[in-house]
Amino acid sequence: MTAIHPREILIYAIAQLLDGVKHVAVGASSPIPAAGAMLLRAMKAAKGEPVPRISVLGSVDHNFFTNGSAELFDCAAQGRIDAFFLGGGQIDGVGNVNLVGAGGYPQSDVRWPGSFGSAYLYFVVPRVILFREEHSPRVLVDKVDFVSAPGVSERGVFRSGGPIALLTGKGLFRFDKSHPGFILDSIHPGYDLNEIKASTGFRFHHADQPSLTARPDASTLGLLRGKVLDELAETYGEFAAKMRAELP
What we know:
Elements: H1 6-17, E1 23-26, H2 31-46, E2 53-56, H3 69-77, E3 83-86, E4 90-92, E5 97-98, E6 101-102, E7 110-111, H4 118-124, E8 127-132, E9 140-141, E10 163-168, E11 171-176, E12 181-187, H5 193-199, E13 211-212, H6 218-232, H7 237-246
Parallel strand pairs: 1-2, 3-8, 4-9, 8-10, 12-13
Antiparallel strand pairs: 4-5, 6-7, 10-11, 11-12
């Protein structure tokens, strides 16, 4: 079996979560989500299938916006973005995201960059993937200290968007709006259910024996390590170089 880098598992998982989208937007400082979108495009192209449009903020080659986030928001409001990614300093069990700071707001113990347009995009983009590589009780909390973007809304609130999944460095969760809450979909190689439970600050549903997160096959790895890293280097040169240096 071909040795694989842990981040290749994440990139492949993102490509699978994006399957079927026509337009995916990726925010700034998001090399792994960008790589996942590029991998999906490369996989579709290799099969001769229609490829998704990718908008990576901060990129020249992979971004048709000319006015940055203003056009991103307009495009999302018009229903022309199918998928987006959100992270956060804290994420809780009902999909709430905190991008402001830890501790009692406004006297937060730790301050983060801020909410920006997270709540807006969370409401209008139908397929929002929560992504945070760190999987620890510090990040995955029972209840966020500040709600930058709510995972669910009260009845009667019109909302076309919301979370569909949470991907971390240890596992993949699906979001069930009927609970609301997360269901552990799969565990990445090298981890087990007990470790996932100990690392997660919120309760989640899971099978008695959760499945293992899928690995990319040899042809997909070839695309990832070749075409995708080449494309990624245009925006994230240091990340792409580090990935190549760390490949098994």
